[in-house]
Write a structure and sequence with these properties.
9 strands; about 40% helix; 7-stranded mixed beta sheet; 8 helices; two-stranded parallel sheet; Glycerol-3-phosphate (1)-acyltransferase; transferase; 1-acyl-sn-glycerol-3-phosphate acyltransferase; alpha/beta; acyltransferase
Length: about 240
């Protein structure tokens, strides 16, 4: 219920201030389990990605977002609950397995699961290599995968910026469902997982128009920090 209350409050405000747009909303099934696999450009993606859908979009987040104390902890819990985030329970093992199990539970309850295969926000607006967790979710749950491409959110609110820029219209494109039924039963084959993930990332590249980089975003961030530090020391 809280999700819909937050959405009802945000929709008119965001629509009036930013004039967001969407394409392909009808590609998202009206019922049953669905995986929305998207690029991740900005913190603003949490606001605009699901804004046009009549279904609740659930995403996975660290349990730390829900366990903080004081005013900051309260605001964090309220925000992430309001945008449909559920905490990942890490008490049973590794974080990746916990995320997979939680995602399968969400899909098993016929929900829409939003996931960012890059694993983190793009540091420069380009599209980076996807992690294979999305492929495991797709093959084990057998839920349809919808490419979910955010547009202009990096320009509007790049990493590190706290206040969105006005005058830039954010958008979202929902692609046609991707069919991976030919791979069912092969979720333990790494080469299959890589092929499925790469197909998803290719669909996102076509939808978003981003340049693709064949490396993980987290690695690119580390390289950028090192390069900036070296440049500073050499100046």
């Amino acid at each position: 219920m809280f999700y819909w209350v937050v959405k009802a409050i945000l929709w008119p405000f965001l629509h009036f201030v930013f004039r967001p747009w969407a394409e392909g909303v009808d590609n998202v099934p009206k019922e049953g389990p669905v995986i929305l696999a998207g690029n991740h450009l900005s913190f603003a993606d949490h606001f605009f990605g699901a804004l046009f859908l009549p279904r609740k979009v659930i995403s996975l987040g660290k349990s730390d977002y829900f366990t903080g104390s004081g005013l900051k902890g309260l605001v964090s819990r309220a925000f992430f609950s309001g945008v449909g985030t559920v905490p990942i329970d890490r008490s049973g093992g590794k974080a990746s397995e916990a995320a997979l199990n939680t995602g399968l539970r969400v899909l098993g309850e016929d929900n829409v699961l939003g996931i960012y295969p890059e694993g983190t926000r793009s540091p420069d607006g380009r599209l980076y290599k996807g992690k294979t967790g999305v492929a495991r979710l797709a093959l084990e749950s057998r839920a349809p995968v919808i490419p979910w491409a955010m547009v202009n959110t990096f320009e509007m609110m790049p990493p590190g910026r706290l206040i969105p820029k006005l005058g830039i219209r954010p958008g979202v494109r929902y692609g046609k469902p991707l069919d991976f039924s030919r791979y069912y039963g092969m979720e333990n084959d790494f080469h299959v997982l890589r092929a499925v993930t790469d197909e998803i990332m290719y669909a996102l590249m076509e939808l978003s128009g981003q340049e693709y980089v064949d490396k993980y975003a987290a690695s690119a961030k580390v390289e950028m920090v090192r390069a900036a530090k070296a440049a500073k020391e050499g100046s």
